[in-house]
Amino acid sequence: MTDTTYDQRTDLQSAGRGMTIERVFTTEGVHPYDQVTWELRDVVQTNWKTGETVFEQHGVEFPDFWSVNASTIVTTKYFRGALGTPRREASLKTLIDRVVGKYRQTGLDNGYFASEADAGVFADELTWLLLHQYFSFNSPVWFNVGTEAPQQVSACFILSVDDSMESILNWYREEGMIFKGGSGAGLNLSRIRSSKELLRSSGGTASGPVSFMRGADASAGTIKSGGATRRAAKMVVLDVDHPDIEEFVETKAREEEKIRVLRDAGFDMDLGGRDIASVQYQNANNSVRVSDEFMQAVVDGGSFGLRARTTGEVIDTVAAPELFRKIAQAAWECADPGLQYDDTINAWHTNPESGRITASNPCSEYMSLDNSSCNLASLNLMKFLRPDDTFDTARFTKAVELIILAMDISITFADFPTEPIAKTTRDYRQLGIGYANLGALLMALGKGYDSEGGRALAAAITSLMTAVAYRRSAELAAVVGPYTGYARNADAHQRVMRKHQTANDDLRPLHSLDREVRDAAGHEWEHVIELGAHNGFRNAQASLLAPTGTIGFMMDCDTTGIEPDFSLVKFKKLVGGSSMQIVNQTVPQALKNLGYQPEQVEAVVAHISEHGNVIDAPGLRPEHYEVFDTAMGARAIKPMGHVRMMAAVQPFLSGAISKTVNLPESASVDDIADVYMEGWRLGLKAIAVYRDNCKVGQPLSDAKKVDEKAATPEPEVRIEYRPRRQRLPKSRSGRTTSFSVAGAEGYMTSGSYDDGRLGEVFLKLGKQGSTLAGVMDAFSIAVSIGLQYGVPLESFVQKFTNLKFEPAGMTDDPDIRIAQSIMDYIFRRLALDYLSFDERAELGIYTASERARYVETGSYLSEEEAAEMPESEQLKNDAGDDLRVDGAGPLQPVLIEAKPHTTAELLETMTGLAVDAPLCMTCGTKMRPSGSCYVCEGCGSTSGCS
Fold it and tell me: Where along the chain do its domains lie?
C-alpha cells in the first residue's frame, strides 16, 4: 500500500463528518445479488439408520456456487422463524439483508457515514463479501441481528469474581445466563482466598476456590441437561502462586479416576445415569496462569512461594520443577490444565491502567478486561489468492477495513447479558477479526505448514490484518471518537502498537510473496502509529484467531482457524443426500506450484485417493512431502510444528489463538512439559494440549512391601490352571460380511460355536498384494486361536477399536458410519454381531437404532425391552457363571471385565463417543477437532465457540 493511496484514502473523511466508503468489490448500479446465479434447493436431514426426517425445508434459495453442506448449515442453523410458517426465512438473500440492513441503518443513525449514499455503498460491499464467502460474522450475529430477539452479537465473555459470598453467588447467576444464551465464559478464581486461610467473620477456615467450582460446575451441567444442544463452554483459571494450586491442578484427573472406579464398582455412570452427578469439574476447561518468575524457577530448579490472597505474604513454598511436573502429568492424564502466560499477556495489554488481564474466554483466544465481551469475524484467506498464485494484499486490505467498520457498528446496537459486561464492552469496544483457511492457503502455494516459508507468510498476513484493523480503528476515532477508556491508557496503547511494528520489522521473508505482504504491513503500521498519536483508537483490541467451526463451513473453508489441513481426502455432500470421497482440490494446485506436470499431478492425486497420503506417490520428490503434511494420518504434523506456527503469528494479534496441540498416545509427560516450556520461550499467550487416548494416572495399589527382616515364609503351594484350546466343530455356523471403509473394500468371514460364541475370524481385503494378504491371514489366525483359548471377544474389541490409520472414514455400514481404520470397523462389527446389549453398552458400542432411541427417550433400551430381557442375559457378566473347569483345567478363564484403562475410553463407554472426538448429538456423524472445540462437518453443530 503506497503513501499516495493512503493520502487519498484519508482525504475521504474528516472528523465528525462521517466516512466516505469506496466501492471496490461491487459495480455501481448493479446489485450484488444480480451478479450470481441462484437456485432452489431442498434441505432434508434424516437419521441415517431409521430414515426418520429430523429437519426438512423445501425450496431454499442459494447461489449455485455454495456447496450443499454450506447451504444445509445456514438453513438449519441461521434461518429464523418457525418452520412451515410464512415468517420462516427461505433465502440467503433474506438472511444477509436482515443482518446488513441493521448494520447500515445503525451506522447511518450514529454518524459513521458521510452520506446516505456512502451507507448504501457500505451495504453493497458488505453484502458482496458475505455472498461470495469472503468472510463471516460469528454465529450470534446470524442468530440475533435484525430479529425481535435481543441483539446479542458477542460470542466470547470474561467474568470476574471477588472474595465474597455475594460475588460468588453472582458469578453463578451471570454464568448461567450466558450459558442459557448458548455462549461461553471464562474467569479467574484467584481472588478467592485459599483453603489455608481464615475467614474474617468467624475465624474458621475458608473453603477455597476449588470447592466453589463445584457449584458452578453443577450449574453448567444442569443448564446443559436442561435442553442445550452443546455443552456449556467455560474456562476456569487459577494463578500459579495461589495456595490451592496443587489441588486445582489435580482436580479433573482425580475426578475422572473416580468415574472409572465407580463404574467398575457397578454404579450407574452412564450419561444421564443416576450416579453421574457425583462426578464434578467436568464442564470446564482449566488453565493455570503462570508467571515469568515461576517459569524461570522451573528452569533454575528453584523454589516458588505461594501467597495468601488476603495479605499477599508467602504462606507455603513449593519446588517449582515439581509443581510444573504435576501440571504436565495432569495434562498427560486428562488434557487439563492448559497454561496461560501471565507476563506475556499483560506485556501486550493496551489497557493496563484499567486493570490487568486475568482470564480468557473458554477457547483462550479472547483475553481482555474482566466483565467484557468480544464479537468476532473471520476472513476466508483462500478468497484472496489470485489466479497467478499471489496474495491480493490490496483487496485483503479493503475487506479488513470494511469488516472492522461493521464490527464496531455492531457494538453500538448490541445487547449484553449483564450491565457490567455492557459497560466495559461499550467503553473499550473490543473486536476480534481473524481468519480461516490458512492451512489450505499454504498448501495451495506449495508451502509446508511446519516450514520457515509457511510461518513467514502466515506471520506477514496476520501482521497486515491487524495493522489495517488498527489503522481503520484510528480513522474511526477521528469520526466517532476514541473508546472511552483510551485517554487513561493512551501511552500503553501506543506502546503496544510500536511492539507490533517492531515485530513486523523483525520478520525475515523467504520469498517475494512474503516480502510483498510484509512490506504492505510495514506501511500500515507506520500509518497506525501516526494516526493513533493524532486521533487515538476506536477499539482497545482488534484481532485474534478463533476456531471458526460452523462459520468455516458456511464459507466452504477446507481448514479452520490456524489449523493445518485435516486430511488430504474429504467427503463432498451431493444434492440428494449422497456423498463422494474426493482429494482436496488444493492438492493439484500445490503440485502445479511445485513444478509438476499435469500427468504427474494426476498420478499423485490417484495415489492419494487410494492411500490417503503422499508417501511413495509416483514421481513426488520426498523433499515436497512436508507440503502435504496434515493434522492426522501417516504424515501428521509434529507437536512442535503447531507450537512454532502459533509463535509465528502471536506477535501480530491483540488476543491469542484458539488451538490445541495434539500429541500421539506414545507421548510422555516430558513431551508435554517440553510443549508447555517451549510455548513460554516462544512468547505464546496460552497453550493447551491433548494426547490421543489420554490415560489416567498410575493405578492405586493396596499392596504393601514385604518386611525384608521378616522370617522366610513357608514354601507356597500353587495350583496352576492353564487354559485349554476348545476347537470349533467341523461343521459350524458362520457369516460373511462385505464392507467398505473410505473406499477400501473387503470381506470378513466369522465362525461360531454351537452356543453362538465367536470362534474364528478371517479377513480378505480387495486389491491387496501378497504381503498384505499374508499379514491379514496371520492376524486372523492369531485372533482365532486367542478366541479358542478363551480370550474374551470384549478384550479384542477394547484393544482394536479406535486404532487410527489409513484408510479411515465413511463406511457402507448403517450402524458404523465412521471408522478410524479397518481394524476399528472390524471389531465394532464383531461386537455388534456377537456381544449382548449389556456387553456392548459397557464398551459404548450401539446400533444406529439404539442411538436414535437414546436421542428420543434418553435410554438406549426401552423399559419394555429391559423387562423382557431373559434373566440369564441380565446376569451374564456375573463372576462365577463364566468359569468352566474340568480335570484338565479351565475350558475358558473368567471373562475379563471390560474396564476402561484410559480416560478417553471411559468417556466412550459412558457416552458412545469416539476417543478423539465426540459423535454429533444432532446427526450422529463423528465430529472433528476445531481449535479447543469440536465441530460436525455434517450439520455444523459445535461443542463450544463457533
Answer: 3-153+359-553, 160-354, 565-636, 733-871
Q: Which CATH architecture has domain 3-153+359-553?
A: Alpha-Beta Barrel (3.20)
Among all residues, which ones are annotated catalytic? 361, 363, 365
pLDDT tens-place string over residues 654-678? 999 999 898 888 899 999 999 999 9
Among 217, 270, 293, which Cα is nearest to 248's? Answer: 217
Contact 54, 46 (CB under 8 A): yes
Which set of grid coordinates corresponds to residue 185? 465464559
CA–centroid distance for 849 within its chain:
28
Distance separating alpha carbons of residues 464 and 471, to the nearest angstrom: 10
pLDDT digits (tens, 9 = 90+) for 226-262: 333 445 578 999 999 999 999 999 998 887 778 768 7
B/e letters for 104-113, b = 16+ CB within 10 Å, e = fewer, are bebbbeeebb
Q: Which residue has the cell 495434539?
A: 662
Q: Do domains 3-153+359-553 and 160-354 have the same CATH topology?
A: yes
Q: Would you tell me the crossing angle of helices 452-480 and 393-413 to the nearest 10 degrees?
A: 50
Q: Which triple of cell numbers denotes residue 183?
A: 455462549
Q: Read off the pTM.
A: 0.76
* Model confidence pLDDT, tens digit, residues 733-761: 889 999 988 888 889 999 999 888 999 99
Given the DSSP bridges, would you call strands 38-46 and 53-63 parallel, antiparallel or unpaired?
antiparallel
Residues 18, 116 contacting (CB under 8 angstroms): no
Q: Are 338 and 331 in contact (CB under 8 A)?
A: yes
- Whole-number Å distance between alpha carbons of 837 and 861: 9
Say if CB 351 and CB 369 are below 8 A apart. yes
Instruction: Return the closest-CA partner of residue 135 out of 405, 361, 373.
Output: 405
Residues 493 and 368 sit within 8 Å (Cβ to Cβ) = no
H-helix segments, 621-730: 639-649, 669-681
Question: What secondary structure does DSSP assign to 415-429, as a single string?
Answer: --SSHHHHHHHHHH-
**Residues in the chain, overall count:** 946
User: Helix, strand or coil for residue 504?
Assistant: helix
Burial class (CB in 10 A: 0-12, 13-18, 19+), 591: buried
Residues 160-354, CATH architecture: Alpha-Beta Barrel (3.20)
